[in-house]
Write a structure and sequence with these properties.
eight-stranded mixed sheet; single chain; three-stranded antiparallel sheet; alpha/beta; Rossmann fold; 11 helices
Length: 343
């Protein structure tokens, strides 16, 4: 978050809510994310008029209508480009991008990876329900191989993108993941994302009740969530399980899930999460964990490192050029170039 942002004394979640009727399907995971965003902004207490929410096209991209902030509902896949422009032109603003797996990773893929590569100080909320919802149920770039949909009636014949791979492959400085049914931790993660200086990418595993219901139920269901997910926190042991009786260790070059007290493993063997180290290889390994590999899905802030930001670089460059070239009138500037007089 930009340290130059003007901080207001106090705001409540309702101060960030617009008067618009929320037009998402009942039960859609977008409702939960919107609720968490309002709460996160109240904790950050950045004045609504110092906040801008940008979006592309898709169900999630309706989010700016429901914010009592500046907002811009742009065109398909171009949200990251517009958000980059907003932050570069007005670096004092807190800029958020609401996008979906189709909007962000298909037609918007190039804009996404270049925003991450540049490390623009924006917060990208990537709602991933593994389907195109607004256009009525086609498979998306994150749909699993073999997924049956309206546009793949016999199953897809391609492997999906993993957002964490794209983000870290573009040298991303912040990546986090949360689930739509866990409001408390989602709110905390959004606050962490806003405080990060640079591009923060938050993948929200979100449910589409109409076209892809229960797509994330294999990990988010309360019956087995504790066994199949791990909430990573910087500086803390990587523990999971109903009673935190399990943890992660390194087995050669690979991560391995073990039970404490079995096979000679003790609490001392369990890895401590370091989100702020530059070890992008370990961060990627954590981000790619999955139950089918015998590992829990990583939630929380996986990576949070410091690097120079694009918007600060542009601002510094402008000031440096201005210092060498004092401000003049337009006529004076034009007369410094090649000129001639027509008589």
């Amino acid at each position: 978050m930009d340290t130059n942002l003007k901080m207001a004394p106090s705001f409540s979640a309702k101060d960030y809510k617009s008067d618009q009727y929320v037009r998402w399907c009942p039960g859609c995971g977008d409702h939960a994310l919107l609720n968490c965003l309002h709460k996160a902004m109240s904790e950050l207490s950045i004045e609504p008029h110092m906040t801008a929410v940008i979006s592309g096209i898709g169900c999630s991209s309706r989010l700016p209508y429901y914010m009592n902030t500046y907002g811009f509902h742009t065109i398909h896949g171009r949200g990251a480009a517009i958000a980059t422009g907003v932050k570069t032109a007005k670096p004092e603003l807190s800029v958020w991008l609401a996008t979906g797996d189709g909007d962000c990773l298909a037609i918007g893929g190039n804009h996404f990876i270049h925003a991450v590569r540049r490390n623009v100080d924006i917060n990208i909320l990537l709602l991933n329900n593994k389907i195109y919802g607004l256009t009525k149920g086609q498979f998306s770039p994150t749909s699993d191989r073999g997924f049956v949909s309206k546009s793949s009636p016999y199953g897809t014949v391609e492997d999906p993108f993993h957002p964490v791979e794209l983000a870290l492959g573009a040298r991303g400085t912040f990546f986090a993941r949360c689930i739509d049914v866990d409001l408390a931790n989602t709110t905390e993660i959004l606050v962490d994302a806003a405080k990060h200086k640079g591009t923060s990418v938050v993948e929200i595993l979100q449910n589409c009740v109409i076209f892809n219901d229960d797509i994330h139920s294999n990990i988010v269901d309360k019956a087995w969530r504790a066994e199949r997910t791990i909430l990573l926190k910087h500086g803390e042991k990587m523990l999971f399980g109903t009673n935190n009786e399990k943890g992660l260790v390194m087995d050669g070059w690979k991560l391995k899930a073990v039970t404490i007290g079995q096979d000679g493993y003790t609490i001392d063997d369990i890895l401590v999460h370091d989100a702020k180290a530059g070890d992008d290889v370990l961060h990627l390994k954590l981000g790619l964990m999955a139950p089918e590999n015998g590992l829990p899905v990583a939630l929380g802030v996986i990576r949070d490192v410091k690097e120079p930001t694009y918007d600060e670089g542009v601002a510094s460059q402008i000031e440096a050029v201005k210092a060498k070239n004092p401000v003049r009138k337009l006529k004076d500037y034009l007369m410094t170039k090649d000129v001639w007089e027509v008589k």
